[in-house]
UniProtKB/TrEMBL annotation:
PANTHER family: MOLYBDOPTERIN SYNTHASE RELATED. This is Molybdopterin synthase catalytic subunit 1. It comes from Nocardioides aromaticivorans. Gene3D superfamilies: Molybdopterin biosynthesis MoaE subunit. It comes from the Bacteria. The lineage of its organism: Bacteria, Bacillati, Actinomycetota, Actinomycetes, Propionibacteriales. The keyword Lipid metabolism does not apply.
Amino acid sequence: MPHPAVRLVAISDEPLSVDSVLASLEDPTAGGLVLFVGRVRDHDGGQGVTGLSYSAHPSALERLQDVCDRIAGEYDVTAVAAVHRVGDLDIGDLAVVVATTAGHRGSSFEASRALIDTLKAEVPIWKHQRFADGSDEWVGSP
């Protein structure tokens, strides 16, 4: 059963909305809200990046839910949200948005850091980068 503090979990092929994530976290008891937005950058490892695409394993949404539930259970938070984009993305596009709320900022900072780090380590979403020199690279694939 999902943890009651988990408000939004999604993998989408549509552009992500920070406003939607923030709206899902509304809670009058939350004094701290920490938001992380991961964007597509124009470089990686000293090479110019022209774009990328994300692919998700069929189990990715379930795994993302599991990560959010675990973070909600391990940290003193009032709400948790995580959304990740799949498909083709351009430089500057939002790739991932995670956020937590808590009664105090410290708990929210800790939980948000754990959320993005655990998501990146455990959720089977793979990045295919395209470089300016015409080469490409898969990141995070098995």
